[in-house]
Structures
1.
Amino acid sequence: MGNTFYFSWEPELMHWLQIHMNTLCVNLASLVTLFGEELVIVVILGYIYWCYDKKMGIYLGINFCMAGIWNTMLKNIFMRRRPYFDNTSVICLKPVKSGADIYDINAQGFSFPSGHSGNSAAVYGSIARFSKKRWMAVTAVGITLLVGCSRFCLGVHYPTDVLCGWLLGLFAIFFIPWLQKKFKKKWVFYLFLFLISLPGCLYCKTSDYYSALGMSVGFYLGNLFEEKYVQFKNTRNIGKCVIRLAIGGVIYFGLNTLMKLPFDPQLLSSATALAYLIRVFRYAILLFIIVAVYPMAFDKLEKLRKKDA
């Protein structure tokens, strides 16, 4: 299953890098690649949205959602097999899904473009562009480059996967704000983004597309609800930030687990329309709660914190 295409220099470069990597280098690459994964990005987005700057968090969230959707739509068009599938000289040093067969393409996903590279370019690039601070721009470029390079050093992406991921993330952070200026009402803008995301339902056969689609729906609806009914305020107080992040993390990962319990695990992991629909609704509800419902508790948390103090 899937397609094989690459430039001859790509597996050669990856092989050369891997034979010169010692255990320390592998561990460093595995650490760096985490900055393009869900856990770290959720923490960063949560801190910026709940604590640091809500407007920046919304900007990041929109770019991240659309970059993720476009990435998965492209993956399902090109269906490129991962490098180690077809090149014995390339070793998979960190599977996308640990515990699953590394040659199970349904579990490990397609290769082109790199989601980690796209995520890092979209998130860290958005932070740099929004803040307009030079040190943030330098940091964003450095992290994005390191995350991308770690992906082909670990054997899970071709260099061209990484390059396309970077370009996709950069496209999102410049195109989305430009597009938003064309709409007078935010809900119309969000509806347009949703509509241009829907074609993936016609051909996407991987769960990551439906996760991204559900996240975008929940984020858009949550932002509209929060702006009208909640209007929470950011905080730079370290204690408040820690509390908001800790509880928010428990809610995010806890709900993500709880909402799976009513369903048969085999159904959730199946490539069926029902499984995809459940995934969309599950992520939409999760993001809506995180973006709009949970911030309603910030004032109560502050009162409890003062009372305990």
2.
Amino acid sequence: MTLMRMIPNVFILVEGKTEEIYINHLKVRGSNYSLHVERFNGNQPMKMVKRCIARFKEKGMSKKDGDLAFCVLDVDDNTVDELIDANDYAVRHGVRMIISNPCFEVFFLLHYVEKVQMKTCKELKSDLTGYIKGYTETKDCWHILHNKKNRAVERARAFRGLDDIKDGNPGTNIWLLFDELLELSKNR
């Protein structure tokens, strides 16, 4: 008798509605992973990481079973020290932080431009309306962006995470999530 291998769970705690809408589209029927997305409704990095750890355990997920946990958040008004403390705590507990500086819309802009200039979140959202007619944070843009996502992921690779945040550089390390999902898809 052959035991059937369970597919790994990928738990993603997102900061807000924009991230939730987009990342839910990464659920692929028949994929070699089960994606679970929940919204935190806030931007307090340490509280978010602790909530992610708690929900991961509550759902019966475990790193030893190959399950993964991610927190997807924006820099917004958080200090570098707050982000570093939360990231250190996340690493100790097996959670990967996906950080967008200053906000998730920087990733949407990378679907259209090579490099994003540092601006406020309000300015970046305004810039998006030049590419996505009627853009709002709660608009589902997947159908507009999905054919360009590989290019955006490649452009996002230039972002070094916390080091870039310290230097004031805009970007996102969401490519880490895409890489993990791609790797899981290969292990079919």
3.
Amino acid sequence: MDTGHFYFIKDEFFLDFPDPYLMQNKGPSHDRPCFYAWKDTATGLYWMIPFSSKVQKFREIYQKKIRRYGRCDTLLFGDVLGREKVFLLQNMFPVTTAYIKEEYIDRNANIPVRVSGVLETQLLRRAKRVLALHRRGSRLIYPDVLAIERQLLLPFVSPTPTKNP
């Protein structure tokens, strides 16, 4: 996995972490949603940021937050494959590579989907800021990501074989 690439998540993740605020997979025949990945070097976990094509809906939410708080770090607008999308930092969550289904590939060019360097810088800066604020008690992320993170960081303990008497 690489920071700045997009991935699809296995259904098992959503079964292992049944949080109502996680953006669930849309069914076996749809590879949606897709997630932008960045690696938290402190934990080794990857954080997945969903994005949506419902730009107008989220632009209205963005404007409400700007009017109310003077800023909005949880939504970021930018282009993916030449179309405007909105990145939902308010719905990001951590995963391990074991939960990655596959990388999002541009079928026309047969290369991994990426965003511009400027957008990538903005995404990483905002994601790290939102996560840091969330860790300090500001509820900016809807899923219980700190509980998911704790579970993912638990050491794997293999079953101890029993001895025959």
4.
Amino acid sequence: MKKRFLIIIQLFALAAEAALLLGFALRDTDSAQDAVAVNEALQSVEADWGRLEGHGNRTGLAYVVLDGAGEVLYRTEEGLSESVNRAVVHRDTMLDIESGGAVVGKLIVFNDSAEALESGKRAVLLAIMAVALVQWGICVGYGIYLNRTIIRPFRQLKDFARRVAGGNLDVPLEMDRGNLFGAFTESFDIMREELKKARLAQARANTEKKELVAKLSHDIRTPVASIKAASEVGVALAENGRIRENYSQIIRKADQIDALVNNLFTATLEELEQLAVAPVDMESGELAAMLDSADYFGWAEIPPVPECLLQGDRLRLQQVFDNIFANAYKYGRNGRQGEGEPSGEGKIHVAMRRESRFLAVAIEDCGGGVDAEELPLLKEKFRRGSNARNREGAGLGLYISDYFMREMGGELLVENGEDGLRVTVVICQSG
């Protein structure tokens, strides 16, 4: 409805401009003087001939009175034609002045059609400028409308898609059914929810797989150990060399089975530690952009970063900060993610300190923290605090972040702060 209204106003403005231009093009440019006023001026001059020093202009016309020799006897104002030749060029009206039946001079009435034309041009130009100003205002308003209804929602979709592609499925996409992307936005958020469900299902399946592998490894090791023990007894008691060799073969195969089971169990539990980490020298100032990117809700005030040279993997550091802020959003005291600004007690506190060999970045939420006995468990695989019972998650964020920091020569510290859980990222300085 708003778009249709703006288009209608724009069409009216264009029609007004066209009407002004057409009216000016069809304007009557007749430069004829007012005959009545001219005759009145002539009669008044003839009546006052011989005493023009006391003559007064009673018509409002601009004119000059010349004698028979062409000398100026009277003028109403300066800047008028004061000769016959000048009057002809300017297309002024010239009349003979008679006195006593003889022509005694000339009356030159100034032709003001050029000034009138210029005045008309200025009026039309001002009118067109006013209409153009209205059009400009309409264009600006329409641009704001397009930005609010199309461009800004599209950018939100773009940022949302980037977060989803990066694996952040916890932040919902805000929906505004009043813009053109309303239904599309809802579909995107449904996609996010389904992906999140699939991710959680995958995490549960991985956990169940690891539990199954651990159980099978235990169940397989027990009979294999029994077989090996019995075979060792057989080797000790066998007198026949061939029988002893058979028992030895059984022992070797039992050892082979045990090694295969151990390899399978170890590979399953360590599969998350196959992520490559490649630390390089980097300026500490780059941390500000990383923290700002991780804090996509803007709940934290990022302090100035001390200047130094760090040793880190930019990609992995970004993942570490993303994981920490995602947890802060999830477990902060405001309680729900992605719904506007947090309350004063829901802010995220960020502090930095530079030590001799490290730069420490402390990030603290306001969720009240966890029990002291649970703190050492938070960095373990698939372990979560008791405050996470009603929150979705797989318990891998701090585990992976801790692995990344150790691979970069740094450390990840988890402790209870004044208002909530404080996670400190300790980054090693270069050199």
